[in-house]
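Why does residue order matter? Because the sequence determines the fold. Keep that principle in mind as you read this record.
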Amino acid sequence: MDRIIQRIALTANVTTTTLIAPVVIFLTPACSSKFAFHPHSDIDFDPDTRIPSFRFTSQDAARIDALTESIQNHSDVPSFAVGVVHQNQLVYAKAHGFRSLSATQPATTKTLYHIGSVSKPITATILAILVEHGRIALDDPIQKYLPPNVKAPTYQNSVAEITVRHLVTHSSGLPRDPPNRRNVPHGIRLNPGQAEPYSVDELYQALPKTRLRFEPGTTCEYSNYGFGLLGHILERVANQPFEALMKQSLFKPLGMNHSTVTLDKSTLHRLATHYWHDDQGRPRIDRPPTRFGDIFGHGGVVSSVDDLARFVSLQFKSNPSLIRLETLHNMRTPQTTTTGSGLLLERDGLPMNMALGWRVQSPEANGGIVNHSGEMDGHSAYLAFAPNAELGIIVLANLGGTRFRQANPTVAMQLGVQLKEQFLYPAVGWTIRDIAECPPQTKYARKPPRRRTHGAADGRGANIVTNR
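Structure:
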């Protein structure tokens, strides 16, 4: 079934319409799957709880322009690309600044940016599609999907095994990065933290040598390692390279035609230059983009505002030939909560519930606000949406470095969080005080980093996979 997403150019009085290609799923549903998302047994899914009243105006566009330009000027950001999605419409899409300073090339909403960890919800969505088709189960041990000679790590003398659910909720105990990660050589034009391409062989060498930071399922700690491993498991399950799996199962059906991982000539032509602050704090050092090897489920996707708008719109409407709306709702069911310090908290310090690849704020109030941020060596991204208001925001930028980290994780997040507060909070009738007073929804919460004793021992949160 064709879906239409209308892109309304408010500043040019031009409306264009783009058709999304008919969805063709490559997976064959299992005849009798033991585990699958069940649409009614373990959730209270009520489509009538949607909030219909929202109208984007020219005054809203002016507010976004002013806020974007203020942050851009204050932080000296080369470019921002911003989108606002309502239902299946991209009601605001505008780029500010230059994708390349040296060539003075203006950014557009089709300009490509590395979205970093915003790739994680994409990886989680592909997992959900495979779960729907009975190809994988959330509570299966990951050892089931690894070669027999590759042993998954365990915690001390515990018998608890890492499961797929643990990987997608950052509760596996795996450290942030694999122990054998290699960084590019130091140099004036390169950030010492930029990783070299990482191979499957390196992953298999690292796993049995990895020391878990805690017993799986007992707490939550952010792990790129875990999501990189998850992407590899999914390609083994589908018997297909993970980038091809991304494109065939999600990007192509949605019409995200320019989203990719491989940086070929065509992609590089559309890619914004990566910038890092020089010693004077000016974003004048351009740097080569990160090139991923075999492992990239944690942060390898390159995309644009126009493409990501289609991914946001997917969250609001039923598309049963691709993924059930009930499954998308299940993906937003909180699994863990972070109430201490750490990367899972935003600038307001409010509790953030970890769902399947998404972070969810205050889930009891009108369906919650769902979000994720990302940064990849000179690019940053922020995506947030209110499911019941069918309203979302997208922010992309091409600036990295240490100066902006002193205040907020990324400049895209600085702008994105303010847009969230100005548009998404009112859309669901929230104030910051309302959110702060909403209790955590899960069985355990993250403690300060040096303390590892946490609530309930099973720590599984809401169970969204049931026997059929």
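The first strand starts at residue 3 and ends at 9.
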